Amino acid sequence: MKPEQKKAINRTILKCRKILEQDIENQLITYGILLGEPWIEKDKLSLSDEQEQIYKDLRDAIGKEMKGGLSEKEALISYIREVTYTYLNRIAALRVMEVRGLMEEVLIQREEYGNRSYGHRNFFEVAREYCKSQSDEGLSYLISLLFNEISSDIGLLFNTEDEYSIIGPSNQALLEIIQSLTTEIDEEAWQQDEIIGWIYQYFNEEEKDDVFDRLYNKKEKIKSIDIPAATQLFTPDWIVEWIIDNSLGKLREEMISGERERKKLEEIKLLDPACGSGHFLVKAYDLFYQYYVEEGYPKEQIPFLILKHNLYGIDIDARAVQLTALILYIKVLVTLKQIGINEIKNHITVNLVCADVVLLNGNRLATMKKEFEKNQTVLKMIDIMYEEFKDTRIKGSLIQPEKRLKPLFEEDVLKRQKKLKSKKKKEDLGLFEGQIDFEEEQDRLSLLQSEKELTKYLEHVHNNAIRNNDINNQLFANEAKKSLTVLNIFLQKYDVVVTNPPSINVDISTDVAVSGVSKKYFSTKFLTLFLKYVYILH
């Protein structure tokens, strides 16, 4: 990408961020939620019934941030930032797709359509009276319809029922954002995959500068909460290509030559435990696609096979995971378009998760544990997860719950085997067949059973919460389900691990993100997170 294009992206993204953050902060004032001042109670506000529900939902959502260890002010700033990047990412996603011809134009205005976009002109024609009554001529409503439509394909970025969609940009702010993204960044830049990474890095630029100022100029000790902003740097193409070619590419060569046991392509798993905006996973996608084509797989199936079976990613920052999901979704659309397919008929499965889990307890936890009071394996699993995931917003993929869960699952599998053996013996059916290979299958099978039971319960809680407009129970179920996804990824075995992990000095003796590192391996008090990742992966 050209230097002037990067400068334009930097300038535009920071401008859009400021517009959205101020707009969201102003909207929160309506609900008595003030930055740096005491919040106003509901009975002192003039709210409609609908606004009263929004008031409650907002308080619950910001309260979840506080339960993650933030002060009221920090939680509010964090919530405003997350709503901002969620909507900015969504609008940027629409811009990427319309520029690449993956959807009809809905953002870029053209004179031939009455200074509207093609999609907006068409919507205006069929809903003229409604559009005339709106300050943005119905554009924001059209865009919300598109978000819902795309969420049926991939919900990670476009889920309009999450806590960051309780309120959205005002019509005026939305129009300003669209104007900036369509006129200040040229179409050539939007055509390039790496624009997603630059959007991510530049969005974080102010936090990164602040952390470095405190660290190097003010000589303040860096906190674990500063790690995402300080370490999220875009990895250049040539470095990513070299690493992928010499890891996944090398594995493929060794399997073909017979140096290594050959696996089916669907069985090869690649993980990026600090995936950022997905640069490594995108390059791996291209290589996997090449391999599937070489082995004669139907081209229309290959994109879905890659995302379902081959690629796994974790990050501590939800912005990163959203953008990774976006770029992989776009890769699928582009691949299908190249073979003449313009519509996705099935939901896309992606093995991506943000490890910023905040497990909520209280009455909901007690109710969940009561549901499984006769299943000791699930009860112990819940207790272990609540203990191990308490620092996950800081540690991310550095947590190791599998160390405590694997013995639990081993015990569960042994019990199941014992029951099956006893039953078969009584039935005089001979030797027990299908012994589970402990090295490969025991923890996975036991996890699947326990996870299935927990997930079924949490989906029930979540669906009831939606019907009853209970954002608290929605948050509880969502965070618990997210922890199960993180756990599932941790318990997989991977053939390739590629990453450019955080590299910043933190104090081993006091910092939770790197606690537990053996002095047997590192004699210094200070350790880069990079070495911690190497230690864990080894």
Question: What's this model, at a glance?
Answer:
GO terms for molecular function: site-specific DNA-methyltransferase (adenine-specific) activity. The chain has 24 helices and six strands.
What would your notes on this structure say?
- The chain is mainly alpha-helical.
- The longest helix has 28 residues, at 3-30.
- The chain has helices at 3-30, 49-67, 72-99, 118-126, 128-132, 139-151, 155-158, 171-183, 187-190, 195-203, 205-217, 227-231, 237-245, 248-257, 279-294, 302-310, 318-338, 363-371, 376-388, 392-395, 402-426, 442-467, 471-490, 529-537, and strands at residues 270-272, 311-315, 351-354, 496-497, 505-507, 526-528.
- Helix 15 (279-294) crosses helix 16 (302-310) and helix 19 packs antiparallel against helix 21 (402-426).
- The model is unreliable at 429-446, 507-527 and 529-533 (pLDDT under 50).
- Helices cover 60% and strands 4% of the residues.
- The chain has 4 domains: 3-192, no CATH class; 214-354, no CATH class; 363-464, no CATH class; 505-534, no CATH class.
- It has 24 helices and 6 strands.
- The strands form 2 sheets. The protein has a 4-stranded parallel β-sheet with strand order 3-2-1-4, sandwiched between helices. A two-stranded antiparallel ribbon has the order 5-6.
- Strand 2, helix 17 and strand 3 (351-354) form a beta-alpha-beta unit.
